[in-house]
Amino acid sequence: MTEIRSRSGRRQNVPEPIRVTLWNEFVHERKDDSVRSIYPDGMHAVWEQALRTHLGDAVSVRTATLDQPGHGLGDGVLESTDVLFWWGHIAHGDVADEVAAAVADRVRRGMGLVALHSAHYSKVFKLLLGTTCSLRWRNQKDRELVWTVDPTHPVARGVPSPIVIPEQEMYGEFFDVPPPDDLVFISSFTGGEVFRGGCGWKRGFGRVFYFSPGDQEYPVYHHPDVQRVLANAALWVAPSDIRGKAYTADFSPTGWFE
Q1: Membrane-spanning residues where (predicted)?
Q2: Which residues contact 23 (CB under 8 A, 6 or more apart)?
Q3: Which of 18, 52, 42 minimizes the C-alpha distance to 235?
Q4: Number of helices and strands in the chain (H, E)
Q5: What pLDDT, on the 0 to 100 scale, is given for residue 146?
Q6: What is the mean pLDDT of residues 25-30?
Q7: Has residue 37 got a pLDDT over 90?
């Protein structure tokens, strides 16, 4: 076990190394030349590079994609994952309900989830948050400024405020999600819109972090400050323990604790 002390002072014991699975729909990179030119090996390859650069031997990284059997999360992969990254867009509906339910169950038992950009509409994210997760959007090459609103939060460690992203898809309020337990970043856009683009929630024994920058048509994941956020988020959602089952309310007769 490796003990990591967060910037907030909370001690967190995590397996050594943290077992990270990067789940990418991996559709755009294969069918769209414009996306392939930015991410020739897939967006997940850039995330892996970011994690290895910032976290080194503290993480082990593997990838999974939609087209693999069980979406790459079967045969014990999900059960041996401490932190799962999730990116999806045009194929949310192709994700099997049973896989989405298994991911949500694993989070409730302690696994960390980092949901990226259009993963806000994924089955997994909506299952965990329980709302439509709808938002305002526009894809016209807006400049995005990612402002840190909680500089004490571990995900904000070493991140400048603002992160300047020259071109990006606009995501704006209202964002139909439950009030975040942790609000770390708010974005502003050329058109004047704002968005809660860096949010954390506790779900059962697990943590969820949503980070909005990252449309496939722009090289956002190559941005060094965005890569720092991804690494920080992986550490923050990493579990201290993963339970055999989600929390349950048990019948307790009078005197059960005596």
Answers
A1: none
A2: 44, 63, 64, 65, 71, 72, 73, 84, 85, 86, 87
A3: 18
A4: 6, 11
A5: 98
A6: 96
A7: yes
